[in-house]
Design brief:
heterodimer, A: 478 residues, alpha+beta, 4-stranded antiparallel β-sheet, 13 helices, 58% helix, B: 321 residues, 4 strands, transmembrane (chain A), membrane (chain A), cell membrane (chain A)
Amino acid sequence: MGRQRSILALILVLAIAAIVVLVKVPVRLGLDLQGGSQLTLQVQTTETVTEITPDKLDAVKRVVENRINGLGVSESIVQTVLPDKLVVQLPGVSDPAQAERVLGGTAQLDFREQIPGTEARLPIEFQVQKQKEDELKALQDSKADKAQIDAKKAEVDSSAKVLAELFKPSGLTGEGLRNAFPQPVGGDRWEVVLNFSDQGGEQFAQLTKNVAGTGRSLGIFLDNQLLSAPTVAAQYAETGISGGTATITGGFDTKEASGLAIQLRGGALPVPVEIVENRTVGATLGQDSIQSSIYAAVLGLALVLVFMVVYYRLPGLIADLALLLYSLFTLALFNMLGVTLTLPGIAGFILSIGMAVDANVLIFERTREELQAGKTLYRSVESGFYRAFSSILDSNVTSLISCLALFVLGTGLVKGFALTLALGIGVSMFTALTCSRTFLMLLVLSYPALRQKPELFSPNVPPSSKTQPNKIQPEKAS
Amino acid sequence: MKLQIIRQRSLWWTLSSAIILSGIVAMIISWSQLGAPLRPGLDFVGGTRLQIELDCAVPSNCAKPIDPALVREVLAAQGLEGSTIQVLGDEKQALSIRTSALSVDQRTQLEKTLTERIGAFDPQKTQIDTVGPTLGRQLFTSGLLALLLSFVGIGLYLSFRFQLDYAVFAIVALLHDVLVTVGIFSMLGLALGIEVDNLFIVALLTIVGFSVNDTVVIYDRIRETVQTSGDRSINDIVDAAVNQTLARSINTTLTVLLPLVAIFFLGGETLKYFALALIIGFLMGAYSSIFIASTLLAWWRVRSGQEIQDGGKDQLVGAEE
């Protein structure tokens, strides 16, 4: 009894915690519910790049992120899906045409030479550009309205154009760059090492020779955006930086250095990116889906609740309580783990409501059998739980095996379904075995009067299990 | 009510075979007509589906219903004659167009012409799905692979928890459920043009994971009875076990079907046929557990001379209280 009390206290604490979580942590809605565009990009292999390694995929991801930043979409997400895909989520975008145009295609990395006479303007314009980009980012993070973001984005674009006008092409492009990686120079100071191909090295030497000691910079552009504008020391004015290797120094920390290196590597990869999937849902449609799935969930839950009480009587009521706790815990768990709710995910959750009572049904059927076999109420309840356990375990494990298969091999939406269903199964084991059991036991133990009324638990109980005679019905073989 | 399942087994076996056979016939017809056993959706063959709705906030935009002939004309002008067009909604203000996979430029061009010819569309009510043909094939193979994987996983688990013959017949029952569901959807594809998509494979996997539950519960009971009263004939034991667990089998299926029915009617277009597939599969799951998996096990044990098994080889986890 004391044990049941402490479990009851634990359940109460969990329930309160779950409510707090539900109130405090917002639900994460998938793009099919909140509206938006999800694009799947496939990185194509070419004659020179015959294999997409995880490393290369990461580099392309940076290029794609770079392009998305130029789109002015708040809270966009880019994920890599091995071996060769990137999934881009653009919330709130109902016409992804612009994004599709910008995201497809091969990255354009090129090295340019600053035009004489612009020395004074470059640092100012570069500063302006960085500042505007930061402002745009801040606006996006604060979820400012679209007009404001668009206006700021236009400023960024025009500032990028101004910057681009300060440079002229040198002929050296990403093809000439073989590799780029960060290298420590002591403390948290890093530099970025560039490795060129033979031809690229020559072009780089020529370029650096042109600008060395002049105060002018060479400009490294990715998709027409200035990444870095290093100057070249006067000592190289004779020969340029030859040998095919150079370093960009400039007080980078780890993050900056590796960031720049990845962008350079991505830009140097001559791999085209193709959009192989586009799933776009308008915001209103998403709203409609949320609405209809809420109706379905509420109706589904209500039907199950009513059925349980009508068929299983008092234990049914307890199962209902456990089921409500189940819904509460599961939803709270979704929020806590940051599970993104998609339409199939909601279907998985609704389905799991029906499955969650399965364990209770097994237990109560067993309890009934024991009661009808003439056992006392307490013993019947105990052995109902005890004997049903093996069936409950087996049936849940088989469901989990399917979920696992779905999760491992499925794509986005399917994964969401598998995850919500699997979490639901886990929580339902807890609520059925712990919550229902504790409630039922407490009830049986605290109200001795109940023991005189096994008919609250099952029809057709033989009189031997009661102390008081009751009307005897003919035994119905169940 | 007491079911005489062993005595009536030839009836159930015939019934199941008949349903499965007609499903297979439907798949063959479907294969000859569509080149696939089921009508494949966008997810598997690739293509673009554009769902748009007129923006009624624009004055006189929604004055008349969308004319499919006009849409067909627009599509033909762009060389998209083979496309399917559906005018949707009570007021015929919404449009669903299914074409081969369109590039961004093709799609924007189509949207532009449609707007010129028909009226302004509400971007907030637009749905675009484009799946490249290669990706479609990948989705399909990974779906089939997942199905295979879960069959193997469940088979291994059951042979570990029970015995090999239990596991084999549980898998046979699962195949039965999957075949019936696939067969019925093949017929639906032929008769009503219902397509199967990614969610259909998800539904099949869910059916596999859930339907085996009923079988497991019945087998659990058979195993228990074999251990406690090993001197009874397996036919008796199976009959008794099925009847003892009958209420449970029916009730758990019912509690799962109730929310599914709610999804089918209220859950919206995307989930409708997903729910239907699950309803069919779960019903079949309960049916095959009660009538097929159990009778097959009894038949096999009698045939292989294990009709009366004295003392169980397999141990139940834990003993009586």
